[in-house]
Design a protein that fits this description.
Layout lengths: L6 E2 L22 E13 L3 E2 L2 E2 L3 E6 L5 E5 L11 E7 L7 E8 L18 E6 L5 E5 L14 E5 L5 E4 L22 E6 L6 E5 L16 E8 L6 E9 L15 E11 L2 E10 L3 E10 L22 E8 L2 E2 L2 E2 L3 E6 L9 E6 L9 E11 L1
Antiparallel strand pairs: 1-2, 2-25, 3-4, 5-6, 6-7, 7-8, 9-10, 10-11, 11-12, 13-14, 14-15, 15-16, 17-18, 18-19, 19-20, 21-22, 23-24, 24-25
Length: 378
């Protein structure tokens, strides 16, 4: 495990960051800087209860100070779809340490585990609900074979994995033909957060729906939809457009596949305000991460009833760059960051943010990376 403690001051200051109701106290500190407190990595291939740990695509602070983490192992790969309880120990001047406490399984409505031998879900994010339960999202599984097609969803479960309910997500997010309309394969519910003020659940697709235009490229960005789900009824109550920029780095000629960029997570930081994690990757080059402050204002258009954003007139959510993390950030080579959560408060009174990477279970080039940022407030 490696400890790093260089300072990084933001060029643009955040007006204020409200602490998520699902992640800490109610202070609203004025942020003047973020400091890299440290990082730690569990090597790919780490076993827990005889099952490979990895694929961490969602992370959220639990009520007791531990963390809930969800793996994107779909089944049919390395084991039964699962989630974890973790401990992260860190303090200024000390190494970051990560401990796996428990491995649990998300259960289906009938109480059974998801199959270990077939792809039926693609878990991507997890958040603590105000009532103490957990929300989690799945990208499902696209297939032209109806028997193997499984739709994306947003569900609530207990902390031991028991099914509670499923939200009614807008039909535009469902798989249709993976070409002209509906969700694109593996590009759906990466982002999930819970509003600090009223418990509204927000979900967003990773990259553009088919009807909303092309995916991001190095030449042009795309647009995704952030949907506000009513936590009482389970129905969508509003939806907003979020613009993704062009991919910041290109893959070299001859690469096996091209680069991509996507909205990998959202974190509520106050009423209608979020930190968005934009994660880009280019084969042979690496990952770049942008933390964006984004906001829903009175002028932001509700696009819930807009069938296609292609050619439509609307005002997207505001976006302001908070932190640009290049391929190697202050000595840390970035991995596939897909998670962000509020962390605990340090002994000096400063808040923290924790980022986590999905290692894709790739032993040669990736690891289960956790990065801690200290929030320096006025």
């Amino acid at each position: 495990m490696k400890h790093l403690s260089p300072r990084h001051t933001l060029a643009a200051l955040i007006a204020s960051l409200a602490v998520s109701a699902c992640g800490g106290d109610e202070r609203e500190p004025q942020i003047r800087a973020l400091r890299l407190l440290g990082s730690a990595s569990l090597p790919t291939g780490t076993l827990y209860d005889g099952v490979e740990f990895g694929g961490i695509s969602g992370l959220d602070l639990a009520a007791d100070g531990s963390y809930w983490a969800i793996s994107d192992d779909r089944g049919g790969e390395r084991g039964t779809p699962r989630f974890y309880n973790l401990s992260l120990d860190y303090e200024s001047g000390k190494p970051v340490e990560v401990k796996i406490n428990r491995q649990l399984h998300m259960l289906r409505p009938d109480g059974a585990k998801f199959p270990a031998s077939a792809r039926t879900v693609d878990p991507e994010s997890i958040r603590r609900a105000p009532n103490g339960n957990l929300y989690w999202s799945s990208e499902g599984n696209w297939s032209s074979d109806a028997a193997q097609l499984h739709q994306p969803f947003l569900r609530e479960m207990t902390t031991d994995g028991k099914f509670v309910r499923e939200f009614s997500v807008p039909a535009m997010y469902l798989y249709r033909d993976n070409a002209t309309t509906g969700a694109r394969s593996n590009k759906v519910f990466e982002a999930l957060t819970v509003a600090a003020d009223d418990g509204t659940v927000y979900i967003a697709n990773e990259d553009a729906l088919a009807q909303d235009g092309p995916l991001t490229t190095v030449a042009a960005g795309s647009v995704v939809r952030v949907t506000a789900m009513d936590s009482a009824s389970g129905n969508a109550k509003a939806q907003y457009a979020y613009r993704l920029p062009p991919i910041p780095v290109d893959a070299p000629p001859g690469a096996a596949f091209g680069p991509d960029n996507g909205l990998s997570e959202l974190l509520s930081i106050g009423k209608n305000r979020f930190i968005a994690v934009e994660r880009a990757f280019a084969l042979g080059v690496g990952n770049t991460i942008r933390l964006i402050e984004t906001e829903i204002t009175a002028s932001t258009t509700n696009v819930l009833s807009v069938p296609s954003l292609t050619g439509a007139s609307y005002t997207a959510m505001g976006r302001k760059l908070l932190l640009e993390m290049p391929i190697t950030y202050q000595g840390v080579k970035l991995d596939n960051i897909e998670s962000i959560t509020w962390g605990r408060t340090l002994a000096n009174g400063n808040r923290t943010l924790v980022l986590a990477a999905d290692n894709n279970f790739t032993a040669q080039t990736q690891a289960n990376q956790f990065i801690v940022l200290e929030v320096l407030a006025d």
